[in-house]
Amino acid sequence: MSPRQGYDHVQQGRLHWLVYAGAALCLWAGIAILDGSAVPAPEDHSPGLWLFFVLAGLLVLLGMSFQYMRVRDRGDVMEINFGPLPLLCKQVRYEDIVTVKRGRTAWIDGWGIHMAPGRGWTWNVWGRDCAELQVDGSRLRVGTNDPDGLVSMIEERMGARADEAE
Q: What contacts 71, CB < 8 A, 6 or more positions away?
């Protein structure tokens, strides 16, 4: 069995719009305080005031880091990265994957990257469908809106690995 080449799937998120709205609110509050339209601006423009602008910038970075999630086949590894600002990425070697199956995350698992006791690591940008991998004794759930395609690609790559070992 020859593995399918070029799996490259991007899933768009939706929650980043809420993060951008929070950034806009912080920016508006900071500007309103500075120009005195909301409350009188402190004479010394205290450092606390600038926290609005710092928080707005951090929220924009967060939103740009989790706007979408891309899963790609890179030959010997599966690459997972969030974007468009590529601050967070992970590579999983196919030879380290013990099992793979289609799964569903719990509603509490939500969005982003996190570890939950008993459930393992989750990388997700939207929805509850996932590919659940057993990787060297730990569980990794990769959220996707193409669970069958992702599981199929991983199984094919694992099959190719077994064929090469023979």
A: 7, 8, 9, 11, 78, 79, 80, 142, 144, 150
pTM of the shown model: 0.79
How many Cβ atoms are within 10 Å of 91's Cβ, its own excluded?
Answer: 12
Q: How far is C-alpha 39 from the geometric centre of its chain's CA atoms?
A: 38
Cα–Cα distance, 13 to 15 (Å, whole number): 6
112 falls within a domain:
yes
* Number of domains making up the chain: 1
Is residue 12 within 8 A of residue 68, CB to CB? The reply is yes
pLDDT tens, residue by residue, 52-71: 899 999 999 999 999 999 99
Residue the block writes with tokens 């569980």: 139
**Beta strand extents in 56-137 (DSSP E only):** 68-73, 77-83, 89-93, 97-104, 112-116, 120-124, 129-135
Please check whether residue 14 lies inside any domain of the structure. no
